[in-house]
Write a structure and sequence with these properties.
Layout: E1 21-22, E2 28-36, H1 38-44, E3 48-54, H2 59-69, E4 81-84, E5 87-88, E6 100-104
Parallel strand pairs: 2-6
Antiparallel strand pairs: 1-2, 2-3, 4-5, 4-6
Modified residues (Glycyl adenylate): 110
Pathway: Cofactor biosynthesis; molybdopterin biosynthesis
Organism: Penstemon smallii
Length: 110
């Protein structure tokens, strides 16, 4: 009687957070969803986008990366607020995998 075993390349769960991805330099990365509102939407031409960052990245760090990608955002940098998962958040807040970071410029209307 012969038993056929197939070796799988699927990683075995080790109890570590499997949500984070491994970057080439050995550090873990997380993916967040960035939401653009009002003028930020106009300047980027997008309503939302994914953003992959290193574990430990702050909301402010994410904003800096977005300004590199969309230089027009510099125009509203000093008057926007950031929200993380539908709560206003300081720029020093660390983002986690699957967080939603909203870029909210001033909105006027009447």
């Amino acid at each position: 009687m012969t038993f056929g075993f197939k070796i799988l390349s699927t990683p075995i769960y080790t109890g570590e957070n499997m949500d984070s991805k491994e970057e080439g330099n050995g550090s873990k990365s997380v993916e967040i969803k960035v939401l653009f509102f009002a003028r930020a939407r106009d300047l980027t031409g997008m309503t939302h986008m994914p953003l992959e960052v290193s574990q430990g990245t702050t909301a402010h760090d994410c904003l800096n990366r977005l300004i590199v990608k969309f230089p027009g955002l510099e125009e509203i940098r000093n008057c926007m607020v950031l929200a993380l998962n539908e709560e206003y958040a300081p720029g020093s807040t660390v983002v986690k995998d699957r967080d939603e970071l909203a870029i909210i410029p001033p909105i006027s209307g009447g």
